[in-house]
């Protein structure tokens, strides 16, 4: 048989290094038994008929193990390498036949893949069973957090992470600490942040001994410093102590830590298979590598069951979403296909009676693509695959499974959501500008758009990516997994219920391309939630087809390569747009009412020389066109602008570019807006408060338009958002516009002003939000007061919503504020609900039990901003009408669709 002894993907082993004999204490291997696999760069032991039973670590040059000199010199940059002791016995042969599971553990930083043939052993001996058994059956879910990626974190960043992690039901954060001198202060900052916001989320330290010195006194000091903190996670009064690695401490070291801290020990130490009884100090042990399949196959529970047979209920395990890294020293893809995240959760829920602890891996390991949280903080140098590849939708989806694992029952699905994810290029593509080459395991992943539908009732779902499309009829209530092949172009997901489209989403920031510049096997993850259908302009309005991006010739004016009248701009042509962007290092805007004129005005106002429209809704501004990019056929820019169908706004990966015929470009986008910018001034806005972004999808609470400029101030943002109800500044230089603050899971609620602490990039004396926190400004309440509108009484509302124009929520809601919001958007009906919610529309919908008048006594909740007023109640709304408005109730019929 052929056995892989070890694999060093980051080394270029030379054949001469394995031509000599390799001596082990109990086995001599002649040169003929050793060869180098030139394809996998793995040392192979050939035709030995031996079995691998245990694992240990030695240093290069150890007297116990002699390597050929050339190999020792070649390995000299490594701190240590891994070997297996090789034994041969009939007992081992029989046992290995019974337990054929191969389990690999990925080193989080050095990425050694260690394939171990596992052997069953005696039962684990820990502390007294009475102390360790969770007699109440409580289950806990942890989130692994890499502190090494938090160098730039401030208190607000920790508060943000803690809020987001706690929101989905996670019980504690495992803070992975390494050797950097600044990391202990970040640990303290995390504990302080949890306490300052009154969070019930707990924390504990996970010591990374692949980086840290193996010092008992250091571990004891750090644990005891925080053991009494109110947010310290404890098991039966004992502070949790975890680790990644730790065999260097030995049983005696761990026993000493336990005695000096009264801690509960739950490390991950590899190589203990068959030896757990020799480590009696350990209270539990968790399996890091059990989160992923260890080859080109779906994840199973074989590995879990192997350890459960030894550890019983003291066994803890992990779940993850993906694994891909692309550095010069580690370059691999580990299989995450076939809905790994869902399948793994389903496995854990099914075996919950055997588990107490599950750890989610990880919140922020961007370098290896296994992150649940937003991409922020520090990333390892050379990381090109995480930015603009969100994973937060995976965490949103996990809430359903976290609840099931902790309670034993899957929660009812009350909201329709499509979660979807995909890689950005074919697995077998050749990247034109990447010298590293494809990662190992690249050929394990299919080119597939994965989707999971959470449906409250039967629906029809369509998945599209470029030319690939499939419609799935009669998608049942519950959780349904779907997939289609990927093709070049944009992703679109739709859901239709009762003849009405309730989901129709095309993420503007993702395109599947066939000719990548850099390799990227990370996943882009999104989600689309069902919304009520828009109010039609008239009863005869026809919805435009969504099956083609090419407009009818009679309604589209093709841009000509001539000056654009009265704009000072000239059309240059249609250009391809991939990574890097054709118009880079400038301004990016995206809004659902995009037109050529809007884009040109925005770029002109900021002093840019070039403007480009793309994909119907996008606008790019820059002072240069990326070198080497040339115009293509104008017919390839064929997508109508979202805000004006007679305009062309590029296409998929095609951008319609215009050049300013005015002044020469400036060195940076710091020009004060000119008369071509929106005419509204900051005086039309008033400060609303500090508001957190959402928790799902893109997380953006304001979704209509976005800007990022080096001269950002609240006044600049308000000017850019003149056509919207809200303007929000964030993270010093960002600006967001919209008419509602409750998109993507945001509540719109005002939080303490201390959370908005970032200085504005254009004026350091002003505040521009924080990390995922906005300083929000709202249009002044200039519309008519409630005295000019008429109260129509108390009405029943429902999931279908009786008013479907727009909605918002704010802590200081009053009747006047809601009427002002609706009036400013030209709606004629307004309704306040649940003390803080406002709904607008021009037609009263009466479906699903909504839109029915009821007793005024049922609207009994005081308004958040004026307790003398009532703002509806739960599913009850105080309805108001504009002067001269009669309530028109719209009944929508439910038609039975015949499918052939």
Total beta strand runs? 54
Number of domains: 6
* Class by alpha and beta content: alpha+beta
**Shape-level CATH architecture of the largest domain:** Alpha-Beta Barrel
> CATH class of the largest domain, anyone?
Alpha Beta
Number of helices: 13
Would you tell me the overall average pLDDT?
76
> What fold name goes in the CATH topology slot of the largest domain?
TIM Barrel
Low-confidence stretches: 1-135, 533-562, 663-682, 781-786, 889-900
Task: Indicate the percent of residues in helices.
Answer: 10-25%
CA-CA gap between termini: 56 Å
- Give the biggest beta sheet: 9 strands, mixed
Rg (CA only): 30 Å
Strand content: 25-35%
CATH homologous superfamily name of the largest domain?
Glycosidases
InterPro entries: Glyco_hydro_71, Sialate-O-sulfotransferase, WSC_carb-bd
Protein name: Glycosyl hydrolase family 71-domain-containing protein
Keywords: Hydrolase, Repeat
GO molecular function, one term: glucan endo-1,3-alpha-glucosidase activity
């Amino acid at each position: 048989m052929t056995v892989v002894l070890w694999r060093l993907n980051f080394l270029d082993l030379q054949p001469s290094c394995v031509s000599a004999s390799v001596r082990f204490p109990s086995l001599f291997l002649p040169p003929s038994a050793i060869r180098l696999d030139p394809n996998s760069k793995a040392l192979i032991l050939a035709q030995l008929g031996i079995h691998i039973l245990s694992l240990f670590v030695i240093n290069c040059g150890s007297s116990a193990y002699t390597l050929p000199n050339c190999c020792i010199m070649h390995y000299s940059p490594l701190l240590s390498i891994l070997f297996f002791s090789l034994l041969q016995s009939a007992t081992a042969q029989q046992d290995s036949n019974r337990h054929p599971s191969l389990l690999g553990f990925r080193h989080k930083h050095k990425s050694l893949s260690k394939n171990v043939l596992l052997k069953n052993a005696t039962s684990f001996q820990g502390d007294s069973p009475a102390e360790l058994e969770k007699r109440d059956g409580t289950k806990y879910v942890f989130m692994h957090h890499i502190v090494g990626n938090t160098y730039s974190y401030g208190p607000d960043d920790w508060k943000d992470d803690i809020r987001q992690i706690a929101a989905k039901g996670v019980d504690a954060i495992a803070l992975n600490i390494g050797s950097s001198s600044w990391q202990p202060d970040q640990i303290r900052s995390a504990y302080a942040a949890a306490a300052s916001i009154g969070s019930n989320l707990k924390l504990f330290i996970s010591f990374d001994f692949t980086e840290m010195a193996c010092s008992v006194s250091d571990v004891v000091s750090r644990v005891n410093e925080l053991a009494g903190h109110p947010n310290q996670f404890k098991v039966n009064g004992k502070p949790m102590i975890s680790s990644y690695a730790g065999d260097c401490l030995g049983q005696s070291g761990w026993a000493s830590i336990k005695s000096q801290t009264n801690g509960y020990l739950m490390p991950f130490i590899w190589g203990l298979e068959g030896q757990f009884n020799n480590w009696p100090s350990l209270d539990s042990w968790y399996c890091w590598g059990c989160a992923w399949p260890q080859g080109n196959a779906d994840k199973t529970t074989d590995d879990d069951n192997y350890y459960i047979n030894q550890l019983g209920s003291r066994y803890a395990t992990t779940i993850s979403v993906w694994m891909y890294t692309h550095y010069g020293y580690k370059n691999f893809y580990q299989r995450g296909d076939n809905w790994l995240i869902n399948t793994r959760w389903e496995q854990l829920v099914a075996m919950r009676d055997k588990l107490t602890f599950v750890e989610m891996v990880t919140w922020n390991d961007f370098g290896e693509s296994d992150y649940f949280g937003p991409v922020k903080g520090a990333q390892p140098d050379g990381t090109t695959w995480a930015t603009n590849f969100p994973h937060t939708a995976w965490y949103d989806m996990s809430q359903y499974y976290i609840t099931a694992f902790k309670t034993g029952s899957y929660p009812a699905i009350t909201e329709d959501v499509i979660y979807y994810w995909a890689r950005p290029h074919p697995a077998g593509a050749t990247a034109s500008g990447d010298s590293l080459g494809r990662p190992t395991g690249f050929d394990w992943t299919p080119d597939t758009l994965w989707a999971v539908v959470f449906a409250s009732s039967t629906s029809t779902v369509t998945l599209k990516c470029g030319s690939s499309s499939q419609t799935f009829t009669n998608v049942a209530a519950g959780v349904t997994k779907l997939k289609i092949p990927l093709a070049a172009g944009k992703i679109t997901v739709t859901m239709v219920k009762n003849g009405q489209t309730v989901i129709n989403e095309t993420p503007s920031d993702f395109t599947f391309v066939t000719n990548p510049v850099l390799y990227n096997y990370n996943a882009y993850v999104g989600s689309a939630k069902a919304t009520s259908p828009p109010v039609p302009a008239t009863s005869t309005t026809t919805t435009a087809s969504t099956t083609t991006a090419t407009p009818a010739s009679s309604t589209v004016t093709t841009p000509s390569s001539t000056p654009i009248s009265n704009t000072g701009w000239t059309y240059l042509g249609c250009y391809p747009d991939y990574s890097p962007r054709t118009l880079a290092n400038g301004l990016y805007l995206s809004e659902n009412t995009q037109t050529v004129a809007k884009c040109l005005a925005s770029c002109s106002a900021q002093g840019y020389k070039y403007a480009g429209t793309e994909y119907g809704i996008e606008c790019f501004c820059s002072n240069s066109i990326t070198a080497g990019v040339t115009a293509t056929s104008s017919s390839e820019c064929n997508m109508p602008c979202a805000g004006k169908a007679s305009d062309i706004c590029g296409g998929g990966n095609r951008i319609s570019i215009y050049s300013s015929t005015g002044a020469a470009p400036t060195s940076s986008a710091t020009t004060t807006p000119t008369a071509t910018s929106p005419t509204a001034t900051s005086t039309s806005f008033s400060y609303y408060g500090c508001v957190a972004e959402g928790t799902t999808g893109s997380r953006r609470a304001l979704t209509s338009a976005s800007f990022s400029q080096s001269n950002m101030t609240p006044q600049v943002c308000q000017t850019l958002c003149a056509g919207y109800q809200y303007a929000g500044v964030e993270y010093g230089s960002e600006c967001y516009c919209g008419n509602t603050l409750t998109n993507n899971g945001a509540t719109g609620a005002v939080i303490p002003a201390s959370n908005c602490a970032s200085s504005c990039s254009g004026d350091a004396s002003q505040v521009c939000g924080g990390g995922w926190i906005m300083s929000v400004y709202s249009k002044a309440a200039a519309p008519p007061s409630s005295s000019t509108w008429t109260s129509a009484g108390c009405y029943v509302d429902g999931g279908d919503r009786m008013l479907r124009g727009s909605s918002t929520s704010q802590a200081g809601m009053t009747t006047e504020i809601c009427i002002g919001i609706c009036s400013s958007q030209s709606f004629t009906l307004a309704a306040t609900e649940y003390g803080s919610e406002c709904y607008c529309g021009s037609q009263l919908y009466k479906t699903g039990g909504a839109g029915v008048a009821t007793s005024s006594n049922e609207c009994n909740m005081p308004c958040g901003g004026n307790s003398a007023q009532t703002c509806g109640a739960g599913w009850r709304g105080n309805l108001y009408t504009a002067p001269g408005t009669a309530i028109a109730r719209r009944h929508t019929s439910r038609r039975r669709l015949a499918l052939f």
